[in-house]
Each structure stands twice: as C-alpha cells, then as structure tokens.
Amino acid sequence: AWAVVAIALLAFAARAFGLDRQFLWWDEGLSVYLANQPLPAMFDEMQTTHYTDPPVYNLALSGWRLLAGNTPYAVRFFSVLAGMATVALAWTVGRRLTNQTTALLAAMFVALSPMQVHFSREAKGYAFAAAFALLSVYAWGCRLGYSGDRLHSDSRSRWWAVYVLSTLAAVGTHYYVGLLVLWQGLWV
User: Fold this and answer.
1) What is the distance between the alpha carbons of residues 22 and 14, in angstroms, rounded to a whole number?
2) Which residues fall within 8 angstroms of residue 181, CB to CB, at 6 or more apart?
3) pTM
C-alpha cells in the first residue's frame, strides 16, 4: 500500500506543482471561454468556430468552474484530478489483469510519463478522456470477467452502466477514443 501512496504523491506533485506559472494558451483559453457560455451559446460557438472536439469536456469544465472558479490554476486542476484518476485506474486495471509488481510499474509509468504529466496540466480534455477510457476498460473487464469472476446479475448491470457511461464520456471528449470501442468489439 505504501508504494501505491508514494506513486500517487509523486504523480500529484508532478502535475500540480507550478500549475499557474504560465498563462492559458490558445486552446486552453478556448476551452475556458466555451465553458463560461450558456449551453445554447456554447453549441452555437462550437458550430461557428468549427470547434472539432466533442462537447463533453467543455460541459464538465463548465460545472467544475462553477465550483472552483476560472483562474488558470482552478481550470487546470480539473485535469490534474483526471490525471490522478488515470494513475489510480492504471494500477487497478494492472492489478486486475496481472500482479502487484506489474500494476505498480504501470502506475509508475503513467504517473511519470511526460505526455501524461503534460496533458494533466492543461485545461484540455486529454487527461479526462484517458481517465474515462481506462474506466471503460476496467468496467468492460468487470462486465465480462477478466479472470472468470462470477458476478451477480445486479452487479453485472451496474458494471454495464459504468461501461456505457464511461465510454460515452471518453468518446464524447475525444473522437479517437472510438478506436477503443473498435478494439473492444474486435476482442469480443
């Protein structure tokens, strides 16, 4: 347990330290701008500007900014939380599929991956999409049973709901996550 906590603390430090040292850059500013619009105006603005990302992240950021505010630190911290969830889910999925050592290595790689750290420090939906994609993988495995687990029908329907909602959130954040659904379909 201490190793998981140490990895989580290391991941948090890498993501949260100096989060507001730089101004928001163009795409981050656009995400915050859209999140500050009323819902109909957000969709009109997305259509007018030919905004190419799906709306789920901007909708979630809209709710988050009501709780935390619009400062660069506050809007980027939403991605830090998603990045931390990705680290935890990497350990959870790794533990479910393999063993403790491999799960710790997976969590460590996600915690320190320069790309993961970078995207967990931006007010963009990449960390959000990664977290929901991993939740989708975990729910997919629980729904089908990674190791032949026998789940009660109530538990199976709950995991089915988690799978559908997490997959919709992931694909609704970034279209490329649709490839995950394709992979899952091919696996079946």
Assistant:
1) 15
2) 167, 171
3) 0.91
